[in-house]
């Protein structure tokens, strides 16, 4: 994990986002054990308290479960993971739409732009 953190956002949330994205990309699977707080802190180059806060945040989001004496594991609750996936998709789309609106694009221009992009992307992958 890289130490490139955005100074305008809390580090614990940035680490949580990275872990969530690993879960959603299936780099981390349900039931997988996360590194210990100390190991994750060393790997991330942050204080262990920051990682502890990250893990607590992930627990509140139902992305992970803490098992006393064993560690922190990716949840095996598929409903929670599905909900998390939907929530992240909604947040990403909302941010994209907000940026397009701020740049003055209409809804129709945005939809056409996405359609054109996806079409062009598909064509470039066929090459």
Question: What does this protein structure show overall?
Answer:
- The protein is mainly alpha-helical and 127 residues long.
- The protein has helices at residues 11-24, 37-44, 48-60, 78-102, 107-126; strands at 64-67, 71-74.
- It has a two-stranded antiparallel ribbon.
- The longest helix has 25 residues, at 78-102.
- The protein is elongated and about 55 Å long.
- The chain starts with 10 loop residues before the first helix and ends with a helix.
- The model has no long low-confidence stretch (mean pLDDT 93).
Q: What's the overall geometry?
A: elongated
**Reading side by side through the largest sheet, how are the strands ordered?**
1-2
Intertermini distance: 33 Å
Oligomer status:
single chain
Low-confidence stretches: none
What is the percentage of strand-forming residues? 5-15%
Whole-number radius of gyration?
18 Å
What is the count of β-strands? 2
Give the helix proportion (percent range): 55-70%
Question: Which structural class is indicated by helix and strand composition?
Answer: mainly alpha
Question: How many strands, what sense, and barrel or not for the largest sheet?
Answer: 2 strands, antiparallel
Count of helices?
5
Query: Mean pLDDT, as a whole number?
Result: 93
Helix/strand order, N-terminal first: HHHEEHH
Task: Summarize this structure as a short list of keywords or feature phrases.
127 residues, two-stranded antiparallel sheet, 63% helix
What is this structure, in a nutshell?
The chain has 127 residues and is mostly helical.
């Amino acid at each position: 994990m890289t130490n490139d953190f955005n100074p305008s956002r809390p580090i614990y949330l940035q680490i949580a986002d990275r872990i969530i994205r690993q879960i959603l990309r299936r780099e981390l699977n349900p039931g997988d054990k996360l590194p210990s707080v100390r190991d994750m802190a060393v790997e991330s180059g942050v204080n262990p308290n920051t990682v502890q806060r990250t893990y607590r945040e992930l627990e509140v989001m139902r992305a992970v479960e803490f098992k006393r004496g064993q560690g922190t594991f990716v949840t095996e609750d598929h409903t929670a993971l599905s909900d998390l996936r939907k929530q992240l998709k909604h947040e990403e789309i909302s941010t994209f739409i907000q940026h397009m609106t701020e740049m003055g694009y209409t809804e129709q221009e945005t939809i056409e732009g996405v359609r054109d992009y996806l079409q062009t992307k598909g064509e470039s992958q066929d090459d």
